[in-house]
Amino acid sequence: MRTFANGGELLASVGEVLGHSDWREVTQEQINLFAEATGDFQWIHVDAERAAAGPFGTTIAHGFMSLSLLPVLVSGVYRVEGSRMGINYGLDKVRFPSPLPVGSKVRATVQLLSAEDIGEGWLQLKNKVTVEREGQEKPVCVAESLTRLLL
């Protein structure tokens, strides 16, 4: 975990790769819970028997589930001492270049693309977050994530 002493140190790190998260396994239970929360019960996600005969040979996580892992993955990459909170502000670009099969391990690599002081103690950050699957060259998700950080 990379730790910045203050917002100024973070602002000075624009363009840098800030690091990698730990690996996390994606389970069928998580996929099922995501399906329940979103109402997306497509068989490629929740029907192991049918998915075994499908194009991926097993169930796969929803693309948006891959995206929803960003907060937990990024929180393991860096932090700014003294920050009071961070909020999601949006996304500029999201792609799902490859599927995420159940049982896979993923991690995130975070590059700070931009950071600006927007006043009243807030920084606005744009991170390029690449979620990679262990043993796979193509990432499962690449997103430009916007965050506002209150210092």
Report the order of strands and helices: EHEEHHHHHEEEEE
Q: Assign the structural class, choosing from mainly alpha, mainly beta, alpha/beta, alpha+beta, or little secondary structure.
A: alpha+beta
Q: Taking Cα atoms only, what radius of gyration do you get, to the nearest Å?
A: 17 Å
The share of residues in helices is: 10-25%
Structural account:
With 151 residues, the chain is an alpha+beta fold. Helices cover 24% and strands 40% of the residues. It contains six helices and eight strands, in the order βαββαααααβββββ. The strands form two sheets. Strands 2, 3, 5, 6, 7 and 8 form a six-stranded antiparallel beta sheet that branches. It has a two-stranded parallel sheet with strand order 1-4. A hairpin with a 2-residue loop joins strand 6 and strand 7. It is elongated. The chain starts with a strand and ends with a strand. The mean pLDDT is 97.
